[in-house]
């Protein structure tokens, strides 16, 4: 797993809380809804592990619901504790957003690089080698 992957995984919990605040859902549906956040490849096993952990922590609750198109499914909903966690995530991510925005703006000013361009080495500094 790359650093980028682990950073994105850290966002899964608040994103799942957001999805459940929008409306309750079952695990497979939540996995599908994660696609809107760029997790088209979300591993359902990882999502289900997260859901179990979030339920143990009291952030979400679940119950079995009958389904007209197949077997009963466990439907998840956000709890008041989960709503508090979601609000805290909003504040923390807002602070991070401000920091990232400032970083990106200053980098663009420094290099003249735009968001979709490949960054060029800074003058006076050799390109990094891997």
Would you mind describing this structure in some detail?
- The structure is a single chain.
- By secondary structure, the protein is α+β, with helices and mostly antiparallel strands.
- The chain is 55% helix and 15% strand.
- It has helices spanning 3-10, 12-22, 27-33, 44-56, 80-111; strands at 25-26, 60-67, 70-78.
- Strands 1-3-2 form a 3-stranded antiparallel β-sheet.
- The model has no long low-confidence stretch (mean pLDDT 86).
Radius of gyration: 19 Å
- The DSSP helix count reads 5
> What is the average per-residue confidence, as pLDDT, rounded to a whole number?
86
The dominant shape is elongated
Uncertain segments: none
Strand numbers in spatial order across the main sheet: 1-3-2
> How many E strands?
3
Tell me about the largest β-sheet.
Answer: 3 strands, antiparallel
What features would you highlight for this structure?
single chain; 130 residues; three-stranded antiparallel sheet; 5 helices; 3 strands; 15% strand
Which SSEs are present, and which pair or pack?
Layout: H1 3-10, H2 12-22, E1 25-26, H3 27-33, H4 44-56, E2 60-67, E3 70-78, H5 80-111
Antiparallel strand pairs: 1-3, 2-3
Helix pairs in contact: 2-5, 3-4
